[in-house]
Specification:
Blueprint lengths: L2 H15 L14 E7 L6 H20 L12 E7 L4 H13 L4 E4 L3 H17 L6 E4 L16 E3 L4 H13 L6 E7 L2 H17 L4 E8 L8 H10 L3 E4 L4 H12 L5 E4 L7 H5 L7 E5 L8 H13 L10 H17 L4 H8 L3 E2 L10 E3 L6 E2 L2 E8 L14 E9 L1 H4 L13
Parallel strand pairs: 1-2, 1-3, 3-4, 4-5, 6-7, 6-8, 8-9, 9-10
Antiparallel strand pairs: 10-14, 11-12, 12-13, 14-15
């Protein structure tokens, strides 16, 4: 290994471990620890590990440019793993472990039910322990209530919530006049229930001619064989399926439908990663839709460079899961710390409120405004459709599958912005 490569790897290792970086961070600088509380084992471990890689890369990139600029010198970031096993009680125990260690930034997202429990627990903790307060950065838990009636000063959401995502998907469905029959299916917990209910309402408003031919909720993370559900979809005569499923619950559902050879379209939140493209294969071309704040084929030199950098860092195709919002969450909290000149949770929260983010550290590929009223990031969204890699608009495939996603429509923040019922309670400065 040459000296340059060794030096780079050493710096990345130091960054990942939260060690001081010679020449950048101050000598003996105390790392700023971020706690990832996520299911890193159990049925959704693949989703948890995928998030870990994104956030690790985000912290490495901050550290590689010198860390967080604060009075007294730069400080590196240190991402610490806390395995919730996908269980709410375990997540709450891990939160206590993180706050007991005086970690002031908590990250979680792969379950709206767990996110809601963390918000409630953190509200109580911060009131009870003002000297050990912490922030909650939510990168994926998209139940709308979390920034509406359950909003919290300590919680910031960097993903578009479910109604914003559904609004984008149903706008695309609205123009597909060939779709007349739709099947709704989701995981049986707060988020999945909301998606099914709201999809029905939005389709009724935008396409009253569409017939909802099935509505199904299934146990989360416990179904190993989705063939019975696929048979119900076939029997219904559905031409399209709308689902908020994620992780293996989405992969196995799509695979079961593919195995029956059903010519249905899938309108999904997360159909562009974690095994889904490989599972459905050729049958997904032109029929699997996904919605996200960005995707690898969004286009442009900066976007392409961003993808290539990530793949250099994680070259194994099975690790190919990249989302701009997770990078932005880290970049925005770093910017807030630097603006506040502090890592104290209350000061950082106030700096985050209303923050405009131009995505400069990401080459400008993702931008947004953290709305002060409810701490919901207002950002563009893309609806994309699965296609063969190499086709126009599909420079990159997904997970080495030979299939990628091309843009169908880009929505500006104002097109999807929604009112909030949040009545934010802010602590005294």
């Amino acid at each position: 290994m040459n000296r340059t490569a060794f030096s780079r790897r050493s710096c990345l290792a130091a960054a990942a471990a939260g060690l001081a970086l010679p020449g950048w961070a101050s000598a003996n600088a105390e790392p700023i620890r971020l706690a990832l509380i996520e299911g890193l084992s159990g049925p959704f471990a693949n989703a948890g590990e995928a998030v870990w890689r994104n956030l690790l890369w985000a912290t490495e990139r901050v550290n590689a440019r010198g860390g967080v600029r604060l009075p007294g010198g730069n400080r590196p970031l240190n991402l610490v793993r806390f395995d919730s096993k996908g269980n709410t009680d375990e997540a709450l125990a891990q939160l206590k472990g993180a706050t007991d260690q005086r970690i002031s930034v908590i990250l979680q997202g792969n379950s709206s039910a767990i996110a809601g429990a963390l918000i409630d627990a953190l509200n109580k903790h911060n009131e009870r322990e003002p000297s050990r307060r912490a922030l909650f950065l939510n990168y994926s838990a998209v139940e709308p209530a979390l920034t509406n009636e359950r909003c919290s000063f300590w919680h910031f959401r960097f993903d578009a919530h479910a109604d914003m995502r559904l609004a984008a998907l149903t706008e695309v469905m609205k123009s597909d006049t060939r779709t007349q029959k739709v099947y709704l299916i989701g995981q049986d917990y707060s988020f999945g229930q909301h998606v099914v209910k709201q999809a029905r309402a939005m389709l009724a408003a935008k396409r009253p001619d569409i017939e909802i031919v099935g509505e199904e909720l299934h146990p989360m993370g416990r179904v190993k064989d989705f063939l019975p559900y696929a048979n119900k979809i076939r029997a219904s005569g559905a031409q399209a399926v709308v689902t908020g499923n994620w992780g293996n619950d989405l992969t196995l559902l799509v695979k079961a439908v593919r195995d029956l050879g059903l010519p249905v379209k899938f309108y999904t939140f997360y159909g562009n990663a974690l095994g889904v493209p490989a599972a459905i294969g050729e049958a997904g071309v032109g029929s699997v839709m996904a919605v996200a704040e960005w995707h690898p084929n969004a286009g442009g030199k900066a976007s392409d460079h961003f993808v290539k950098q990530f793949r250099q860092r994680f070259p194994d195709p099975k690790d190919d899961y990249l989302h701009a919002r997770m990078q932005s969450a880290v970049e925005m909290v770093v910017a807030a710390m630097e603006k506040a000149r502090s890592t104290e949770a209350g000061a950082v929260a106030r700096a985050l409120e209303g923050m405009s983010y131009d995505g400069r550290a990401l080459g400008g590929i993702h931008s947004g405004v953290m709305r002060m009223q409810d701490h919901q990031l207002q950002q563009p969204l893309y609806v994309s459709v699965m296609d063969k890699a190499g086709k126009d608009g599909v420079a990159f495939d997904v997970e080495g599958s030979g299939f990628g996603f091309r843009s169908v429509r880009r929505f500006e923040p104002a097109e999807l912005s929604m009112p909030s019922t949040c009545r934010m309670v802010r602590p005294a400065a």
